[in-house]
Amino acid sequence: MLHIDTQRLLDSLQTLGQFGALPGGGVNRLALTDADQAARDWTVAQMRALDMQVQVDAIGNVIATYAGSEDLPPVMMGSHIDTVRTGGLYDGNLGVMAGLEVVRTLRQAGVRTRRPLAVAFFTNEEGARFQPDMLGSLVYVGGLPLEQALQTRAVDGPLLGEELIRIGYDGAAQVGQPAVDSYFELHIEQGPVLDQAGIQIGVVEGVQGIYWTRLTFSGKSNHAGTTPMHLRRDAGMAAMRTAAFVHDLVQRMGGGQLATVGSLELEPNLVNVIAAEASMTVDLRNTDAQVLAAARAQLHAYAMQCATAHGVQLQTQVLADFAPVAFDAEMIASIERHAKQAGLSTLRLPSGAGHDAQMLARICPAAMIFVPSVDGVSHNVHEYTPPADLGRGAQVLLQAVLERANR
Amino acid sequence: MLHIDTQRLLDSLQTLGQFGALPGGGVNRLALTDADQAARDWTVAQMRALDMQVQVDAIGNVIATYAGSEDLPPVMMGSHIDTVRTGGLYDGNLGVMAGLEVVRTLRQAGVRTRRPLAVAFFTNEEGARFQPDMLGSLVYVGGLPLEQALQTRAVDGPLLGEELIRIGYDGAAQVGQPAVDSYFELHIEQGPVLDQAGIQIGVVEGVQGIYWTRLTFSGKSNHAGTTPMHLRRDAGMAAMRTAAFVHDLVQRMGGGQLATVGSLELEPNLVNVIAAEASMTVDLRNTDAQVLAAARAQLHAYAMQCATAHGVQLQTQVLADFAPVAFDAEMIASIERHAKQAGLSTLRLPSGAGHDAQMLARICPAAMIFVPSVDGVSHNVHEYTPPADLGRGAQVLLQAVLERANR
């Protein structure tokens, strides 16, 4: 039986983590920045060193193929290597580095699978610099026109297409090529469930639906000391009340409905000036599409009513809208079986976060493997998964991919 | 009878408004910036051209004295020439330019008052770059030690003392000199009361108490999709709930109690990351010291309770704390009498905003004259007072100052 090398996998994650490393630990590697370019260049060099054929497509997705004994659609492994502004070593990176470690293990043992293997990393999964998130894989599966994606503006100004050219990742390959047999993604859970239950392998059944919206309230700036409360048009208060409402709402709803107001900005943002404008985001998630739709409808109804009550205007922009996704039953069963055969504890669970796998699931059978995140910490410089858990996840990935590629 | 020249007053306001002028109208002249330096230099040149003796004190207050027939403490007029980031032509500037117009009118007519006249502008009245607001006049009256004031850090980094040196306004004069007989401040109302009632002159009886606090909530950043609601430590939600609470509170309290959350910042401020830190300000005002104290106590009690409920830490910083101020009864009566003698409509009212006059009231008789603000718009580039109203206010100032200085 083949075994992946946990230390080698860990080394590759730590080397990759040096691109965009933050002084106090953690990584800031927003999509298509200089740090992302450096990380891409290094990863591509790793791929080439494994005799993989590397192609870059027009949205900057990188797909490296390791030939099989037959010229069939490859079994793909992958994820992303961009991070949030205060990210860790594992989110996304693990799926890519574990894919390369699987290829490295096979190559070292001189093993060729029947179907080719591919390792991919997709552009702008995090959505921290360009919206929507999972943009590269969304374009790959035909969910967003290439031209529209290239016109997406970064939070710091430039267009996505300009940034691809700037860092040299405006590739020649057509998006959506090659057609793939199936897609496996190993990822940290990014939540507390496995860690708290002491479970080694999460067998992911699907992904929550995700809805992101930006609400922009426009009122009138005025003096905080001379404007009676009833004459105000306070955009900030309308936004903050809407935030409090949605938080109350999901707690009343229960059942795993999530809501997050992670971003809010006031203008002019001064202590003694009533805010003329307030821009906030709301992130809603649920595995149940109907409940998610209900939360979304109540949010928008309240925001409109609140805007009216405060005498302010409301503009709504949908930033992301993904229905819940179910993964492939056969691949799920295979992952679970290989984990159990290796004596590992398993738990079937949904993914709370969005992943490239949910996009790939639109065009091929797809599945995910989770390993624990200590304390569920994620999108945080303190994100951590012990090396033994990383190794277990990569080993299950290897076994499941071998079975799939040799069938 | 002497008459001020309204057109000349207007010209001086418009010239002053060119320093820090914003492209679309309005003024951005934060205290001790390059724009403030240019405005100070121009104003000092105007003072010198009127044969006034100019002194700059150690906190950058500028006081120009026009000699009287006797060497007595001067009757002072003044205000400030710094603005908020999105200010207008009139706030503060009117009090200084009208003071100079009074002196100009007397000088042109060859009139000397018994007591000297002084025109002053005080450093950092707005509090938009350094906190607390009304800093220069506060130091002038001994309410804040000079050394502490010089160590105040700007929102953009440098210390106040460094900025005074940089722009050449670290003056040699001792703060609090000269002792003054009395202080008059002409100002736009910055509120809607006079404009809505069609009143020409506001006779200001006193100033609301002002309390500013910064509340900083510290929680834990985490993934918006994988962290169950009950396991979150969401600093942003604690802040936004506290904002909604204080808004509800003052509406329940009624009676002129004001509350404004003008500034709120989240970290890391990303759509899919629970905020680790939220920093907000609350501005509370009331003419009734007891009611203001009650609002303040309820705010802090709720914020603490809310922090605990969200599992986040709370740090509180008091940025400003000024008790309500009553102006001098004799000066109030004099202003009212001169306005009525000129056939103008008057209304006694409190000031909702803080003004340098409330500081001067600690050391000498003080009073203020208000002119209408169209629609009550203030701290806004659309701030506007018609020229005729500016002229009426300056004329009442002239008459009241003449009476006071010749008594």
From TrEMBL, chains A, B:
Organism expressing this protein natively: Lampropedia cohaerens
Its taxonomic path starts at: Bacteria, Pseudomonadati, Pseudomonadota, Betaproteobacteria, Burkholderiales
- Name the source's superkingdom: Bacteria
Question: Matching PANTHER family, A to Z?
Answer: ALLANTOATE AMIDOHYDROLASE, ALLANTOATE DEIMINASE-RELATED
Question: So which cofactors does this thing need?
Answer: Zn(2+)
Q: What is this protein called?
A: Allantoate amidohydrolase
CDD domains xrefs: M20_bAS
Residues reported in the UniProt entry to bind Zn(2+) 2 = D91, E126, H379
Domain Peptidase M20 dimerisation residues, every copy: 207-303
